[in-house]
Amino acid sequence: MNPSFFRNCSMSQVLERPPIRQNRKRSHLEALPEGRPRLFAERPGEVRLVPCNACGGSKFKKLFYKESSLRETFQVVRCSCGLVQVNPQPDLKAIMPYYTDAYFKKRTDRGYDNYYSEALRDEIRRVFTLNLADLDFFTFEEKALKSGSNHALDVGCAAGYFVEYMAERAWRSRGIELSRSAGTVARKRGLDVTIGDFLTSSELSPSSYDLVSFWASIEHMHDPASVLRRAYEILKPGGRMLLSTCRYGILARIRGKDWRYMNVPEHLYFFSLRGLSKMARGIGFQVVRTVTYGSGMTTRKDGSELYATVKRYADPAVKFLNQGDMMAFHLEKMS
Ligand SMILES: [Zn+2]
């Protein structure tokens, strides 16, 4: 990184500490039962300000502070280009404590207790099918499989649910996963999954895949722009990329720090539909189709009848209006 970056940026507002004990009104942080939460600034060297991943710029506007599951506080900012992000950012070492076995077992954003449970696996597979239909993937798949173009790689594959899903659909299906605990689960299930870093892995050759996918994984990565460039490189001309991520749009702006996907620092980037489309086009992808979905109302196992009814109408409505807080892309590497 250019050392002049830190000198040039106007970051006084961005670097200030959260006003934990200044307001008379009790803040969320003060209400914690055990002592004072740790702040990002107390881990120098591990948490640092980085240039915007989309534009390289350094003009950030502070949006809010958000506390993590490990009671560290992180700052969420919006770049002048529009990309919302955690910045300063914890480096890989600082973020790894968030990806222990417990991360997968306690994950509750879909209302289930355990990512590895049968129930959640079935729910994830149901969403894959919906996404693939919405993205008009099956038309491409039929042609691809007929011509023997069936090499697929799922990046950030976790327990390998999409790897398995595609293997069942006659793809030569592989995955790569940075988390040892999740990757080990996938491997034990007999799937072709590498535990390692997609950006530096020596196992991936240029122009060798017909399909590369990122299901809710790009927002976890430190350098999404480089990751998407690498995906472009390893795709064959005419190959496709599928990508889903949470969408920073109207629902996210309304909910602010309480938005269901504002999980920091696991989620480092919050893309808009337009912003991510622009990044993909800049790399050389053509946008085949996009879809947004999700009203922000998470499935609740023991939710009220009213909640379920509102959700039943809200979900299709936001999808129709293209205002969902999740989005999925079908992209093509132009030949
Ligand atoms: Zn930017």
Give me the secondary-structure topology.
Blueprint: H1 4-8, H2 12-15, E1 38-39, E2 47-48, E3 60-67, E4 72-79, E5 84-86, E6 89-90, H3 92-95, H4 101-106, H5 118-134, H6 137-146, E7 151-155, H7 161-168, E8 172-177, H8 180-188, E9 193-195, E10 209-215, H9 224-234, E11 235-246, H10 250-255, E12 269-270, H11 273-283, E13 285-293, H12 305-320, E14 326-333
Parallel strand pairs: 1-4, 7-8, 7-10, 8-9, 10-11
Antiparallel strand pairs: 2-6, 3-4, 4-5, 5-12, 11-14, 13-14
The protein binds zinc ion.
Zinc ion (ZN) binds near residues 52, 54, 55, 81 and 83.
In short:
With 335 residues, the chain is α/β, with parallel strands linked by helices. It has helices at residues 4-8, 12-15, 92-95, 101-106, 118-134, 137-146, 161-168, 180-188, 224-234, 250-255, 273-283, 305-320, and strands at residues 38-39, 47-48, 60-67, 72-79, 84-86, 89-90, 151-155, 172-177, 193-195, 209-215, 235-246, 269-270, 285-293, 326-333. Helix content is 32%, strand content 23%.
